Amino acid sequence: MFVSDEVHDRAERFGDRTALRVDGVRVDGASEMSFAAWDRRANAVARGLTAAGVRKGDRVALLMTNHDACALQVAYVAVLRAGAVAVLVNPRYARREIEHVLSDSGARAVVTAGDQTARAHELTSGAPGVAVLPYTDLVDRDDSAFGVDVDGDDPADIFYTSGTTGLPKGVASTHDNAAHHAMEPLKRGGTFLHAMPLSTFTGLIGAQLTPMRLAVTSVVQPTFETGRFAELIERERAMFVLMVPAHILLLLESGALRDRDTSSVVVVMFGGAPTPPAAVEVLAAAFPNATLTQGYGLTEGGNSVCVLPPGEALNRPGSVGRPMPGVEIRIVDELEHEVTTGEVGEITLKLPAGRRSYHNDPDGTARTWRNGWVFTGDLGRLDDEGYLFIVDRKKDMVLRGGYNIYSVEVESALFEHPDIAEVAIIGVPHAMLGHDVCAVVRLRDGAPALTLDDVRAFVVDRLADYKRPRRLVLRAEPLPRTGMGKVDKARLLAELS
Fold first, then answer.
1. How many other CB atoms are found less than 10 A from the CB of residue 259?
2. Nearest to 408 by CA among 437, 429, 375
3. What is the CATH superfamily name and number for domain 3-179?
4. Superfamily for 397-496?
5. Of 50, 62, 55, the residue nearest 87 (C-alpha)
């Protein structure tokens, strides 16, 4: 069953149930829609796309913010029903990045809404072959059943990575890829709360398709704000809460959960970047009835490929869990030989969802997908029970005087300091050692200033001497982050240069 078929199935079985509610806004006359409305509107917009000249296989870019979540979710399914390929565009991208996405994908049209409409016209003014299609012009049409026939190996969507190593790179998925993660719906319903950017891969898979597959109501906060998010947990009686580590750290730092009733939450899902074990302990106390599920996945691989079983988030600090059914994990060295248990190497994955590919980049595809394995670029290790621990990104590892220093390990140790709110470890150039360890730190409000000696003394019993920071940079403002909430270390390094 393809994604568009899943939406139709939920509409037939749970038609009157609210599928999506956008907190605090009314966009194009509505801030929520039922499963039946989602299905009908997708038919109408698919007809509108076809009438506008979109044909099977054409690339259709979707440029909208979370304020237009209803329109975005409808448009994604509509593009699939029109037989076209959805190109999700992160509205936080700069002009150059979006122009690259439109050009690289070969987009024939841009579906847009709200405050992105004028921007879409501006961005396409020099591209006469790209049509701008406002969502409101598409939705008011015949909404009876509609769909262009597609095969499982036809392309369904293209997601662009965050671009921390250059211009964004497109990862293409087929209809079989997109439909792989089937779930049984919850007949009694429930509420799924998040503030994920919907134009990202995690935003689609985790925040759009997972609630749809569970047949629960997705409540989206357009822009993450700690006080309101905590209020929504209580007011909406949220069952599921999805966050990235940045949300977790900000929520815990703010104290917004104090005196809030979180007893309704049965699952807290988080991932996208390593979460400090000390923060996971505090998170567990804040949600006493919830299972903490830290997932691990990547755009190149698909949805989460590892999940921690109930209770293991605290029992195995730092682990992202065991492989899900059908997933295989190997840890390999530079020669692609499998390393022994407990040894650090590159994480490689074999996935039942099938191989994705880099759009317009056969060489990159060949480097990442080799002999049925995805080479992730992440460094990790497996324990003797098969639990995976993420150690670092290859590009973030600091090589100092012949020693490998994993930034995640140093960051987790520093995060235990009661006055540190955020920390990033950066490898800065050193004339003799190659690189040295720099800690970029934001302190909690009201905390006294820290010195480098203070930081080094704090980790003296936590880290080997060669891992301890040799440079400290204090920031008053939050650390810069990518659209997915990951610390933007490339930007930090540029600022330090």
1. 8
2. 437
3. ANL, N-terminal domain (3.40.50.12780)
4. ANL, C-terminal domain (3.30.300.30)
5. 62
- Give percent of the chain above pLDDT 70: 96
State the average pLDDT over residues 314-340: 89
- How many of the other CB atoms lie within 10 Å of CB of 188? 8
The helix/strand/coil state of 117 is helix
All structural domains of the chain with their residue ranges: 3-179, 244-393, 397-496
Q: Which two tokens stand for residue 231?
A: 């209020």
Which two tokens mark 202?
């995690």
3-179 and 244-393: identical CATH topology: yes
Residue pair 94/165 in contact (Cβ under 8 Å)? The answer is no
Q: Dihedral sign for Cα 26, 29, 34, 39, please.
A: negative
- Pair 428, 438: CB distance under 8 Å: yes
- What type of residue sits at position 362? P
What CATH number labels 244-393? 3.40.50.12780
How many other C-beta atoms are found inside a 10 Å radius of the C-beta of residue 282? 15
Token pair recorded at residue 279: 């923060």
Per-residue pLDDT tens over the stretch 361-391? 888 888 888 888 989 888 999 999 999 998 8
- Residue pair 350/328 in contact (Cβ under 8 Å)? The answer is yes
Residue 357 Cα distances to 174, 336, 354, angstroms: 10, 20, 10
